[in-house]
Structures are given as C-alpha cells and as structure tokens.
Write a structure and sequence with these properties.
two-stranded antiparallel sheet; single chain; alpha+beta; about 130 residues; 3 helices
C-alpha cells in the first residue's frame, strides 16, 4: 500500500499480492473520494481536506486492517463478523504454522496445532479454522 507500483510488481511478482493491493487501493480511494470527502465538505469547521488527506486516510485504513480479522463461521454466504485484535502484532502469520486463531462466541484465542517446544516461535495462519 505504501510501496511504489514498481516495487510491488518487482518484489511481489507471482504472489497474488500486487493484485490484492491494487484492488484495496482502488477501494480505499473510491471510499475516500465518495464518502469521506463529501462528509468532510459538509463539516468544514471540523475537517480540513488539506490535513485529512488521502495519504492520511490510507495510513488509518492500514492501521485498522493490521489489527482486524474477519470470522465468517465457515458457512458459505455467511455474514462475516469483523473483530479487532489489539495485540495482533504478537502473532506471526505464516502458512507453515503451528497455531491458529480460534473464534469463540465471546473470546478469541490462539490455539496450538501441535506441541511447541520451549523457545520455539508460535506461528499462526489467521485464514484457518478449527
């Protein structure tokens, strides 16, 4: 989101990430232009387009995206429930994982998928479910 287009294409070629970033940026820009800007223009005594720029909006969206997860309950067509995980940066997200997030009715827990030795790093994939 904050790299140049050239960096994204060169460094992330073949991962599917460039396409996801491009889609996210289109959505973020569209939301800013069509929702945020009209709202700020309606209340100029509170909001300044110069201060509350698209660049600042991207940073705010990135912060929220970094700490939010969606749990759909595993059913197709299910309404996804977004949750904020303030301590998400303690999780290491990888495909070769030894733990995953378990979404309970009132809790969010990290559950190991195999024994983790003392000193071993816990690695999670937030896309998997129990």
């Amino acid at each position: 989101m904050f790299w140049t287009r050239e960096e994204i294409v060169q460094e992330l070629k073949g991962t599917g990430i460039p396409e996801a970033v491009e889609r996210d940026m289109e959505n973020i820009t569209n939301e800013y232009d069509n929702i945020v800007v009209p709202f700020m223009e309606k209340y100029p005594e509170i909001w300044s387009l110069k201060t509350h720029s698209l660049d600042l909006y991207k940073k705010m969206v990135a912060f929220i995206m970094a700490y939010s997860f969606t749990e759909s309950g595993g059913e197709e067509g299910d309404n996804a429930t977004p949750v904020m995980v303030p301590m998400a940066d303690i999780l290491n997200h990888v495909s070769d994982n030894n733990a995953h997030l378990n979404f309970g009715e009132n809790t969010l827990t990290m559950v190991t998928t195999r024994p983790i030795k003392k000193g071993e790093i816990g690695r999670a994939s937030c896309r998997e479910r129990v």
